[in-house]
Amino acid sequence: MLTVKNLTRIYKLGNVEVKALLDVSLGIETGDVTCIMGKSGSGKSTLLRQLGLIDRPTSGQIFLDGKDATKLSDGARSRLRLTHLGYIFQEFALLGELTAHENVYLPGMMLGGRAVDYKNRSEELLEIVGLKERIHHKPKELSGGEQQRVAIARALINNPRILFADEPCANLDTISSERVMGTLVKLNRELGVTIVFVSHDPDDKAYANKFIFLKDGKQVSEYI
Amino acid sequence: MMNSLKVATFLAIKSIARGNVRVLLLTIAMLILVYLNLVFTPALLDGAVETVNDKTINTMSGDVIVQAAGEIPVIGNVSELVSQIESLEGVSAACARNSLGADISYEEERATTVVYAIDPDQDKKVFQISQHIIEGSYLAPEDTDQILLGVQIAGSDWKDLALYSSSLKSVHVGDRVSVNYVGGVQKQYTVKGIFYTELTQGDLRAYITEKEYVTMNPLMKDKASSIHVKTQDNVKLESVIEEIKGIRPGLKFQTWEDYEGFLRSMTDSFKQIIAILRANALIVAAITIFIVTYVDLVNKRRQIGIQRAIGITGSSIILSYIFRAIVYAIVGILAAALIFKYVVVPVEAQYPFHFPFGDVFLPVNVRYLTISALILCGVTAVSAFIPAFRMIRTKIIDAIWSS
Question: To the nearest whole number, what is the mean pLDDT of chain B?
């Protein structure tokens, strides 16, 4: 489903080159729950942004259903993110001027279709993530855990084939974290959504069936 | 494309409705000032041009001036020609005048002027001199020993007058003045009235009756040096001229614009100043909107990055900023137009600006207000587009994580 070959990402900070990812190759199959693990600065988020088509690699290829996504235009990648991929940010990343309901159905509106359909779908998803009573609240009126669950619902509005989550519990307390991770696992089991998430917490291994370990931008065989 | 428009409209509405109210009010307030700036000074100068033109037409030239084209600058059978001209479609009235160069003296003072011989009743149909009498009264057709003086000739002890020093300084109604016509004829007249049109050139004239003129020069009966034609509103002067040519060939014509002479250079300068002020106001508007949009975009850099990351197209985001800017512009323009029409114009009419050629009133030119509004909306759209377009070109990761 998703194949990565020799992915390298080098950032330039002034005259200094930061090698965030070096020659990473991996494969993700439909239905997998993949956990990208590593310590802070190991390149986890960088890898996830490459896989989620939010950033472009310095070199290497990303094949989505056999098609090289690195060669696509910005517009085509944007379309692919809208139709095939869902992305959950570490910092919730909701739009402050929109309610939870509006945040969730906005990508559905962008995709098209009848308003009643994407609005109903948004309500369903918010109910699934346990926020049925909070759909008309703005992000600032929600707790961190609630905001992250709204972000999950938003990522699911267009029925993505792969859901990427960048340390979705990094800013949450233990109870909220368990609820968010539980929601992701439930989505995988009940809806068959492929999930790729980033974590530095060894306890999160329990939620995944496949692991990618990174250290200093390089793929390693185990979490060290 | 429809989806982009839909999302852009949705984002613009939510941003306007739920964005920072103080920023919203400040932006609209700035647009109100920008629009008022765009229309006020040009309107004032338009008003000045209009005043000069109206005064010229109503006190000096009429809409069309007809003169003899041959060596002898006199039109014969004038009463018949005036009647024929008045019967033409689009003509309100016509009158004949004879002009004579003269020196006027009073006590030790002397002034040079042009004396116009007129039929007071007929002249009143074309000109408004009778409405500008500040002392005494207007001429009557039977007056023979009387003269009407412009205030710049009489002086009238009005030391603030522009040309007081070269006037007769202290002439008032009832005073006797001596007039030496070019050609040697000398006459004494009693001043019957003094007029003040506020147009300096018009106030340098003197008027006697046609009857008095014919008494001096019987050969000039039913002859005139010029005929002045007043047309109805929105009549093409060229077509009136063509019709008069058909009645009597061999005449030459001037429109009031041709007649304005050096006043024309003043109104032309005003028009150039108006164009510069308009361009300046539009540049100020563009920079204002650009700054407002740019600051807003910088503050929302991360939000825009998130929108793009979740698949919202760049065109939707740019359009949302353009829509929002246009809404701000429309609200600002409507508010400013209402303020202009119902506050600025009435207040200015109550306390008009006084120019050397008269009080200037602000005209409410709907066509210009509309054009200005459309131009401002266009400028606003472009000013919102440029920073939004630049922001969209930023990498998503820079937009989200570098701020």
Answer: 89
Characterize B144-178 residue by residue with b for buried, 16 or more Cβ atoms within 10 angstroms of its Cβ, and e for exposed: eebbbbbbbbbbbebeebeebebbbbebebebebe
Q: Kindly determine whether residue B311 and residue A110, on different chains, have CB atoms separated by under 8 Å.
A: yes
B395 touches chain A (CB under 8 A): yes
All residues of chain B having their beta carbon less than 8 Å from the beta carbon of residue A140 are: none
Q: Exposed, middle or buried: residue B71 (CB in 10 Å: 0-12, 13-18, 19+)? A: exposed
Q: How many residues does chain B have?
A: 403
**Nearest of B394, B204, A137 to residue A149 by alpha carbon:** A137
Quick check: A139 contacting B, CB < 8 Å? Answer: no
Q: Tell which residue, B229, B233, B254, has the closest CA to residue B87.
A: B229
Give the integer Cα–Cα distance in Å for B124 and A99: 73
Residue that the structure tokens 């039929």 belong to: B119
pLDDT per position as a tens digit, B252-298: 999 988 877 666 777 788 778 888 888 888 888 788 778 877 888 88
Residue with tokens 């368990």: A178
Residue of chain A whose alpha carbon sits nearest to that of B402: A13
Q: B18 to chain A: which residues are within 8 Å by CB?
A: 97-98, 138
Mutate to test the interface with B, among A45, A73, A94, A106 (most CBs of B within 10 A): A106
Cβ contact A90:A167 at 8 Å? yes
pLDDT digits (tens, 9 = 90+) for B156-189: 999 988 899 999 999 999 999 999 998 888 999 9
Q: Which positions in chain B touch A49 (Cβ < 8 Å)?
A: 397
Q: Please report the domains of chain A, with CATH numbers, ordered by start residue.
A: 30-57+73-220 (3.40.50.300)
Give the contacts of B35 (CB within 8 A, at least 6 positions apart): B285, B332, B333, B336, B337, B340, B372, B373, B376
* Residue B254: burial class (beta carbons within 10 Å; 0-12, 13-18, 19+): middle
CA distance B345 to B362: 6
Contact: A110, B7; criterion CB under 8 Å = yes
| pLDDT at A161 exceeding the cut of 80 | yes
The ipTM of this complex is: 0.86
Determine contact: B5 vs chain A, CB below 8 A. Answer: no
C-alpha B94/C-alpha B125 separation (Å) is: 7
> Which residue of chain B is at minimal alpha-carbon distance from A50?
B397
Task: Let me know how many helices (H) and strands (E) chain B has, helices first.
Answer: 14, 12
Pairing assessment for the beta strands A2-13 and A16-28 based on DSSP bridges: antiparallel
Kindly compute the dihedral angle of the four CA atoms of residues A186, A189, A192, A195, in this order, to the nearest 10 degrees. Answer: 60
Q: Measured between CB atoms, does B315 come within 8 Å of chain A?
A: no
Residue A46 C-alpha, separation from nearest chain B C-alpha, in angstroms = 10
CA separation (Å) from A125 to A115, A158, A177, B146, B228? 15, 11, 18, 99, 84
- CA–CA separation, A209 and A33 (whole Å): 6
The span from the CA of A116 to the CA of A103, in Å, is 15
Q: What is the pLDDT of residue A3?
A: 92
Question: Whole-model pTM?
Answer: 0.74
Mark yes or no for CB contact A74/B10 under 8 Å: no
Give the pairing type, strands B226-231 and B358-360. Answer: unpaired
